[in-house]
Amino acid sequence: MADLNYHHLRYFWTIAHERHLTRAAERLHLSPSALSIQLRQLEERLGHALFERRGRALELTEAGRIALHHADAIFAAGAELVSTLKGRPRSAALRLPPLRVGSVATLSRNFQLHWLRPLLARGDLQVVLHSGTLRELLAQLGAHQLDVVLANDAVPRDRAAGWHSTLLAQQPVSLISARPRGKARPFAFPADLQGAELLLPGSQGAVRAAFDRLVQAAGVVPRVLAEVDDMAMLRLLARETGALALVPPVVVADELQSGRLVERCSIPQLVESFYAVTAERRFPHPLLREVMSPR
Are the C-beta atoms of 223 and 199 separated by less than 8 Å? Predict the structure, then answer.
């Protein structure tokens, strides 16, 4: 845009980093009303609101986040120009906007690492990773604070919220344990679950519900030592006890490879699904289509 007013852009940039109009005005030596007028002129030129007020704070809109990314790059390039002409060049390569990823706390860390690895290998991207409950992360996704949420379960389509769930991968589910002493006979599922000590994922997940149905249909009664939502803790308990753990092998891939844990029985009726949940956006992250492809 040849007629973009860079003073207005500087004012917006300051407000965005202060997240408060009055503090930004003090920093710029302007009155809040004058700064508000300058901001409104920039919004009119761009054709989009850049902030929305939440209580006493200002939050960037979707368009505002994009504008801030470009403003950061513009002013970083200006600082690079000055430094270069003074003989002190700095790196100011244009980077992509940060990719803000929410991950449900119960999700396998190994799966997350596999999904993140190609993104972390890029030289032009910063990944911001948040963990929480699905409800918390969906609220952040709806507020434009996240670009994508990784989850174990699909989110029902919601026309108002614009949720969309994309299946990224499916993993088989197995019973895993420490290596039995001596020569163990093949595990007979489900009969050998009678009285067996079990470590199970929490009762809210789809895999746990399907497992419970299989056990009830078989008429066997295992002894449940623990129900664990956190896959990292379930992995640790599987290593430290002799109990059987119901997990996708990807969760304990390192232990299986080292022989510290062994797969006692694969359960073909059960699969763990991994989804990427997004919301409809006018300006989606430029890498979003790439990261939504199955891994």
Answer: no
